[in-house]
Give the backbone structure.
Amino acid sequence: MGEVTLTIDGRQVTVPAGTSVLEAATQAGVKIPTLCYLEEINEIGSCRLCVVEIEGARTLAASCVTPAAQGMVVHTNTKQVREARRAVLELIISNHPFECLTCVRSGSCELQALAESLGIREIRFEGAKSHHSVDESTPSIVRDPDKCILCRRCVAVCEQVQGVSAINVSGRGFNSVVGPAGELPLNDVACTLCGQCVLVCPTGALSEVDSTREVWKALADPKKQVVV
Ligand code: SF4
Ligand code: SF4
Ligand code: FES
C-alpha cells in the first residue's frame, strides 16, 4: 500500500493510504474533537463532532471516516467548522439531562468537556426529552439511558472486543435506546459484567455501582468489625 501526503492546518503530513483524515491530523499534531469514534472499534461517523473543511469539497466531512488523499488540503478550525460542531453538540445536549452537579461522571465526562471546550453557554434548541428508567439490576453496572448520546461505543466493544453482544440499539430516531434487546434489565441477558462498556462510555449513561455510602454506614456500625 502506498503513501499519501496532505496538508492539515498548514502542516504537511505523509500517511499510509487508507488512513483517515482524523488519524492523519493526530499524526500531524492537530487535535480534532470526537465523540463516537473509538479507534479500530467504532468508526461509524455518526456524531459528526469531528467535521472538517476539505478544499474543493461541497460539504463538511466527518474526519474519522474520510480517507486521507494525495494533495488534500484540510482545515480543522474554520468558522464554518466551529459553528457546525457547536450546532451538533447543542442538539445532543438538548436531549440530555442537566445533572452535571450530581452526575457520577462529572469531571471525567467527554460531553461535559466538549461543551466546555466549544464554549457552549446556551442551548438554542428546545424539544421533548427522552425518559427511561435507570437499570440497577446488576451488582456492578448501572445504566442510565437518559444520559446516553447513542454513540454506540458500548455496543461495538461488547460485540467486537468481548464477543458477547449483550446490548444493541433498538427503536428509531428519537425513540432509539441502547441496551439489552426488548428493554430487558441487564441482569436478565447474557452480559458477563466485564465492564468494558462502562470504560468506553463517554457520559454517565453507563457507570459502576457506587457502594461508598454502604461502606461508610458499615464503618460507623459499632456491631461490625473492620478488618484492614
Ligand atoms: S458489561 Fe461487558 S458483556 Fe455486559 S454489556 Fe458491557 S461489554 Fe457487554
Ligand atoms: S451507553 Fe454510553 S457508550 Fe453506549 S451508546 Fe450510550 S453514551 Fe454511547
Ligand atoms: S467522531 Fe467522527 S463522526 Fe463521531
Notes: Residues 87 and 158 are 30 Å apart (CA to CA). The first helix runs from residue 21 to 27. The beta strands are 3-8, 11-16, 51-54, 61-62, 73-75, 141-143, 168-170, 177-179, 206-208.
